[in-house]
Amino acid sequence: MEPFKPFTPHPLFEEYVRYETRRQFFKKGASFLGTAALAMLAPQLVMAGKKNDGAAALDAIRKVAGPHFAPKAKNVIYLHMVGGPPQMDLYDYKPVMGEWYDKDLPESVRMGQRLTTMTSGQTRFPIAPSKFKFQQHGKSGMWISELLPWTAKMADDMCFIRSMHTEAINHEPAITYMQTGNQLTGRPCIGSWVSYGLGSLNDNLPTFVVLVAKPSNTEQVQAISARLWSSGYLPGEHAGVSFRSGGDPILFINNPNGVDAKVRRKTLDGLKALNELNFKEVGDPETHTRIQQYELAFRMQSSVPDLTNIGSESEATYKLYGDEAKKGGTFANSALLARRMVERGVRFVQIYHNNWDTHANVSGRLPDQCKDVDQACYGLIQDLKQRGMLDSTLVIWGGEFGRTIYSQGGLSKDNYGRDHHPRCFTMWMAGGGAKPGTVYGETDEFSYNIVKDPVHIHDFHATVLRLLGMDHERFTFRSQGLDQRLTGVEASRVIKELMT
């Protein structure tokens, strides 16, 4: 009888197991033979195994994945208005409110709604009708404020949702909810989910980029932190990469004085070898992330300068976005950079624009806010359309909640303030399979409660994922013993009326 010979697994299989956590490995133990068979069948996996390169093998495994359906969009540009734009001053026209000036909001409308500490002590809730004029635009007849003349020109390119709603009533949980699908911090944001699910379109640029635009008015800006573009429990390489508006776009992207490209390459090769040894010994996924980040940073040294050098853009393009596009850090400049990014294969671009938290001085601040974004949004949509990119690029515009029809603080015909309002607010989409010329959802005459076709944040996320070819119920990641997903565990639905 021959002596017993222990089974020796394929090197690629060993690397795959090391990358898994113990919980994930034991869960998948019943199907590990299928994983090994996949490794033997996929040529790119076999080549990676021959090199005994765990990182390359794992990259190859990821590249065989794909969307659940044929996607309508392959890129996303998400424009987040931090603070909560007042829907009744921009998109949700309520002419009857002119007759209610300075009258109290009926209790039958408020129905004991939870209030913020900013207005909970008020003895009255006086109605503040919008001081701005509205007109209907496009074939849809969408009502748009005089503050947004450029946006009004493209009404037929846009898909309006006037019935968004959320449970969060304060900024931190609300913006976290809108970006991650949960009011608690520590979860992956939507950009990280898209990066994880669909991967990169350009190995020399990040898959997910974040830009924080500077508002021209800074009366009441909100804190914006990197947790909003965190990858949470997803692998760290899917976190957003923040580009700065001044100096080097990314810190330390250029080599120090006296260090040339050959020296940097030799240094990185040494670091990679050390990290590979640590990866084989410990199997920590963050080691793999570190390897990827070093390599991407090296490749970005040549790709980022070209990306951010907007001097090559034509005067016609600058005219489209407006003069502010030439000024670094403005919203218009960020919108132009976003187009350049998706043109070069960046999968998801997030732009944050601050100071929409209009607790007071709506008449003084809102025109500045709208001027910052109005022409730039128009220019972005038209630029994408002219280049044949709008059909594959989904553009999203909106905040984390809406504002109240009643005034916070003093009220006059010419000025007023508005508190946070989660029960209804307006967002819009364009391109990427969003149905143009659509106006979805209705609110009551006070723009306070939804009366038709409500859209919860989870419904919105499910719809965005569907446009990208992902089934939100099947698109999961195992963490803490649960199959986590962007839309959570409560029932959510894809709003098909918003899609072409």
User: Hey, roughly how much beta strand do the residues contain?
Assistant: 15-25%
Span from first to last CA? 69 Å
The second-level CATH architecture of the largest domain is: 3-Layer(aba) Sandwich
Query: What would you call the shape?
Result: globular
Q: What would you call the structural class?
A: alpha/beta
* Helix coverage percent: 25-40%
The average pLDDT value, as a whole number, equals 87
- What's the oligomerization state? single chain
Could you name the ranges where pLDDT drops below 50 across 5 or more consecutive residues? 21-28, 30-52, 60-65
Tally of contiguous helical segments: 16
From the alpha carbons, calculate the radius of gyration and give it in angstroms.
Answer: 25 Å
Instruction: Just give the CATH class of the largest domain.
Output: Alpha Beta
The count of DSSP E runs of length 2 or more, i.e. the number of strands, is 17
